[in-house]
Amino acid sequence: MTKVIDIINKKKAPFASFELVPPLKGSDISKLYNAIEPLMEFAPPFINITYHRDEIEYRQKPDGTFEKAILTKRPGSVAIAAAIMKRFPVEVVPHLICGGASKYQLENDLIDLNFLDIQNVVALRGDAIPGQKYFVPEPDGHRYSCELVKQIHNMNRGIYLDETLTNAVHTNFCIGVAAYPEKHYEAPNIDIDIENLKQKVEAGADYIVTQMFFDNKKFYGFVEKCRAAGISVPIIPGLKPISTRTHIEMLPRAFSIDLPQDLMNEIRKCKDNQEIYQIGIEWCTSQSKDLLAHGAPAIHYYTMGKADNIREILKRAF
Length: 318
Ligand code: FAD
Known about the structure:
This protein is an alpha/beta fold. The chain has 11 helices and 10 strands. The strands form 2 sheets. It has an 8-stranded parallel β-barrel, surrounded by 6 helices. Strands 3-4 form a two-stranded antiparallel sheet. The radius of gyration is 20 Å and the shape is globular. Flavin-adenine dinucleotide binds next to strand 5, strand 6, helix 5, helix 6 and strand 8.
């Protein structure tokens, strides 16, 4: 087991890491393996697996009344992480979210991960469930990700929720947290968002991974502000190539980010998704090369289970 922070500190050359989503309920795990296999050529030291909280759907019954259904669309993050580590020579970094879980459930998930010798996690808050305007923590849950970071950091010191436990095993988790070069959508301004990010680091986060961005200047400005605020842990930039026309509307709305005018001008010239796909590869390659030239220790790619464009970008940039 190697911690992500040690990988970052010890690697002589910058590297790529990837983020994948668990397969939809009822799908075969081989789909996920097929998405990982072509990326192994680039020897990623770690792969992240996202976590998806339950969703609520109201289904109409034949008599016209509605029935509430709780859906776990992408279950199995912990088991998937273990399965990937068994199959590929790679560390796996499962994401854990506060949304929908009590701190007791989170503790049990962390105990499972520790038993499986998975000692890298990304600690997140998660979003409100669809239909809910604001994020509402569970009773006995965490409101902010820094509280989850603190919980994990405590377990690393043998402090569990049950204070009567004595001589409890000290876990050894390396903790990543999220950050937003263009500000988290709920934060009143970027400076306050960075103050809140600093709290996560002070609670025990070892490194930071950013939300995707399409203008490197925003990332550089963000890193500068973080350093000025006293955040000294590594900050890994996150990138995603645009691949379809729907991304143009979907990405700004879903992730509260801007698409630069130069990129939009290029996309507007495209006749179809095939041309947009190529522009996405070129844009992401040039972002990657520029980040590497500016000394990024690593680049984290949001693959969404699609390897071909990412492979092309890596071949050109690394
Ligand atoms: P937090 O750090 O809790 O921040 C949320 C908001 O609260 C921010 O506006 C922040 O400024 C503010 N805040 C934070 N701490 C405090 C405090 N102490 N006091 C007052 N305000 C505070 N979502 C998933 O559901 N599953 C995933 O696997 C997943 N992976 C992700 C990976 C990355 C790299 C990123 C960037 C995001 C990911 N997300 C994932 C999305 C994430 O859950 C959402 O963006 C969520 O809205 C915020 O999560 P967070 O951990 O940044 O929250």
